[in-house]
Design brief:
By secondary structure, this protein is mainly alpha-helical. The protein contains 20 helices and 6 strands. The structure holds arginine.
Length: 459
């Protein structure tokens, strides 16, 4: 009986096991890094006389040929192999013969994959940093152009005090600046080369690990071979930093969506970055902002997923770690797309300055300044607070803003008011007087913008 289906069953199971175990479908992304690492390894082996110069030359030229052929599409990465490391080595041996078989001397796939992933992440960090910098450049331009674009500043999503669009953008400038700092820190901390750690316990060949590290532009070689092959901290740090970038983008998108709503109309998203409805002809939806907000979940998911994968793993390498790739690749791709699209959307967005200023006035964001006016004319703050409360109530009943009240109306509530009250509660005055460092007043903002500009020139 068993014979009738046994053979077939075993075969299918084998295929499933093979597919489940293989990583080539996704780690083929590491092809360039794998070749870079192998060239450095072979160069070092020749320097240490483990390989002859001829063998090294054959290996390096062979690897360069593979790299070129993969780039040009002449050589297809075959999914017949278990992973990218096997593919590169097998192709090399097929092309150059005997010397190809010596490349893996003093190396394991464990330190090889640890290296490839680090090289990949370092490249991506530099790219992500560029994207963040481009976003900061757009924000700085909007800041420079909107020093006197008055708008309500909010707490509890209730209009609070007047600020400017420059100031609001400046808040996000600080957030994305910190994001760049975090990426920079991660790069520095992960800047050690694991190659030469072998499977877990180093190797008996006389490797010069410092030389390999130098060839690959690392600051130094790692100091513990077991840690080297099982350290994925830098990926967790990266996923955490990327989650923070997404959190910032998501908050920003939420504001754009609110500002773009029919009720606010503070901004108009460019046609290129909005979409219509198949049924409601009047619609122009902020889909890109919503999608960026939505994709935040999957980047957080990658962080949670991979933290959970790593939890409880004994030293040193375990196959669980192969799970790092799809999660990290997806999170990196997602953040790159989100940053690119978000920057384009901001760069082409129109700001409705009138609507912003009108909203600031209608929300009594200058009420604190009206109270300050009374205090400056000898009224105790507690009394001033009560008087302005009456003014606001009066305005709400009449459906007007503070600057639309006549002087007689003001004086009926308090005789202390004079003609200068209008000047004192104008948006311009309210903002201008906020001149502490970091405040929206024009002079304070100009000083900060100068620092932002310098920062972008230097970093
Ligand atoms: N595909 C593996 C990974 O991504 C490469 C390392 C394999 N090592 C091993 N001992 N099977 O982790």
């Amino acid at each position: 009986m068993a014979q009738l289906w046994g053979g077939r069953f075993t075969k299918e199971t084998d295929e499933l096991v093979y597919r489940f175990n293989a990583s080539i479908s996704f780690d083929q992304r590491l092809c360039e890094q794998d070749i870079r690492g192998s060239i450095a390894h072979a160069t070092m082996l020749a320097e240490q006389k483990v390989l002859t110069q001829e063998e090294k030359t054959a290996i390096v030229e062979g690897l360069e040929g593979i790299r070129e052929d993969v780039r040009s599409g002449k050589l297809e990465i075959s999914e017949k192999f278990e992973d990218i490391h096997s593919f590169v080595e097998a192709t090399l041996t097929e092309r150059i013969g005997e010397p190809g078989k010596k490349l893996h001397t003093g190396r394991s796939r464990n330190d090889q994959v640890a290296l490839d992933m680090k090289l990949y992440v370092q490249d991506e960090i530099l790219f992500l940093d560029e994207l963040l910098k481009e976003l900061l450049q757009v924000l700085l331009r909007i800041m420079e152009e909107n020093l006197d674009t008055y708008m309500p500043g909010f707490t509890h999503l209730q209009k609070a005090q007047p600020v400017t669009l420059a100031h609001h953008m400046g808040a996000y400038f600080e957030m994305f600046k910190r994001d760049r700092g975090r990426l920079h820190d991660i790069y520095q901390r992960m800047n050690t080369c694991p190659l030469g750690s072998g499977a877990l316990a180093g190797t008996t060949y006389p490797l010069d690990r410092a030389y390999t590290a130098k060839l690959l532009s690392f600051e130094s070689a790692t100091l513990n071979s077991m840690d080297s092959v099982s350290d994925r901290d830098y990926l967790i740090e990266l996923l955490s930093a990327l989650s923070t970038v997404m959190m910032h983008l998501s908050r920003f998108c939420e504001e754009i969506i609110i500002w773009n709503s029919n009720e606010y109309q503070f901004v108009e998203i460019d046609d290129a970055y909005s979409t219509g409805s198949s049924i409601m002809p009047q619609k122009k939806n902020p889909d890109i902002a919503e999608l960026v907000r939505g994709k935040t979940g999957r980047v957080y998911g990658a962080l949670m997923g991979f933290l959970t994968t790593m939890k409880g793993l004994p030293l040193a390498y375990n196959k669980d770690m192969q799970e790092d790739k799809e999660l990290a690749f997806d999170a990196i791709d997602t953040v790159k797309d989100c940053l690119t699209l978000f920057t384009g959307m901001m760069d082409t967005m129109a700001f409705r300055k009138d609507a912003m200023e009108k909203s600031a006035k209608n929300g009594f964001t200058n009420a604190t300044d009206a109270a300050d006016y009374l205090v400056n004319h000898g009224v105790a703050f507690r009394d001033a607070h009560g008087i302005v409360g009456q003014l606001v109530l009066y305005c709400i009943e009449k459906g007007i803003s503070l600057d639309e009240m006549s002087l007689e109306e003001y004086r009926k509530i308090s005789p202390v008011f004079e003609e200068e009250i209008y000047q004192a509660i104008s948006m311009e005055t309210c903002v201008k007087r906020r001149m502490t460092l970091g405040a929206p007043g024009e002079d304070a903002m100009r000083a900060v913008i100068e620092l932002c500009r310098k920062y972008l020139e230097e970093k």
